[in-house]
Structures are given as C-alpha cells and as structure tokens.
Amino acid sequence: MTFEEAQASGLDPYLGIRPDVTSTRVSSRFICDGTGGVINGNRIAARVGVSKTVYASVVGSKNKKLPGMMDPESAGYYQEEFGEKGKTTRRLRSIYHMPLAFMAALREFADYDFLIATHIDAARKDVPVKYMSEVYDRETGEPGRYSQYQDEMDKLEGRFVEFPGWDGGEAEAARTPADLDPNVRRVIAFLGDAMKAPVLMARNGGSVGNNILWY
C-alpha cells in the first residue's frame, strides 16, 4: 500500500484476463523491478493484501464474465452507494459475490502474508454475504481453478457458502473488534483462514480513521 495503492494481482500482465491487464507487476514479488532495484520485496516486514469483505468489484471489458455475478438490482446498490465506477471512464464495474476460489489462487501468486479487509460497512442486515468457496467444470463436474484465459473461465460454475449479514451503519461506528457484530467477526475470521492470510485491519468506512485493528 505504501508503494502502490492498487495491489491487484488479477491485473498482472502475465496473470490477468486480457485485455484487462496493466503494464506493471502489481505485487510485492516484483517490486524490485518496479523500483529499479531499490526495494527487495522479501525485506518488507509485512506484505499485506487488500480485500473487500461483502462484495467484489471487477474492472474490464463487457466480454469478461466470471462465475458468481450479482443480479443487476443487488449490483446497482454497491455501484451507486460505494462508487464502483472507473476513475477515468466512469464505467460501472461488474459486481460479484466474493470469489474466494479465485482470490486464494491470486494470493498464492502475489505472495502476501496478511490482509486488510475493507468495506465491512457495505453489509445490510437482511442480505446474506455469499462467498464462492470453490468452482467446478459445469460439463465434467471436475474441480476448476482460476485461469487467465476467458474461454476456460466460461466453463466454470461456483459453489457458495453463505453468512448472515449485519448492519453496515453499526459497523461504521465500531472502534475495536469487540464492538463489531459477531457476524462480522465470523466472516473476517473465515476470510483470513481461507486465504491463509490473517486480517490485520478492517476498514469500516471511507474516512481517515475508519480502521479497526487486530494487532
């Protein structure tokens, strides 16, 4: 986060689904290249990834389709309330249920050790939080995996686990983990365990200071 606010290994030119890739290597593994040899990623004390907790937003072309896309009404809420639009194009981002099966693969590639969980204030008490825990080939039933090739991703369907929602407004008022609804803490614990990257901090709002620390 110190070196580049957007750490998105799914946009890496060697791992992302074309044409939606960057020209840079967006993970600590390759920061030595990006800084001209000044910084060695192995010497960073805490290599930290960033993940939303309630929904996922995906940038890119209209042709890109991944399993777990939200229905338009549900997606519209997050697009409007949480500014899920391109910074320059203002094009709406696609909204998905949390694609844990893909996130875990990307985490292996990015090689970070800890997580910052954001947008816990985006939850609603009457709306379950869904995580796509695994994917499978719809024709063969065999387990699937993340791929940088769209034609391979088109073959996949997801299986989901579901958690009760919580009041995002109440979460925004929290200052410590103990202040949070147990449903929030349960999801954060699940996310950190499944990703093999414990959560160090949660973001519960868009303002400076909306940080809940686990360390």
Proportion in helices: 10-25%
Structural class: alpha/beta
* Uncertain residue segments: none
Question: Which geometry do the CA atoms define?
Answer: globular
Number of strands: 8
Provide the residue-averaged pLDDT: 91
- Report the top-level CATH class: Alpha Beta
CATH architecture designation: Alpha-Beta Complex
**Superfamily (CATH H level) name:** Adenylosuccinate Synthetase, subunit A, domain 3
Give the C-alpha Rg.
17 Å
User: What string gives the helices and strands in order?
Assistant: HEEHEHEEHEHHEE
Trace the largest sheet across and list its strands. Answer: 1-4-7-8
Integer count of domains: 1
Throw out a few tags for this protein.
4-stranded mixed β-sheet, 8 strands, Adenylosuccinate Synthetase, Chain A, domain 3, 215 residues, two-stranded antiparallel sheet, alpha/beta
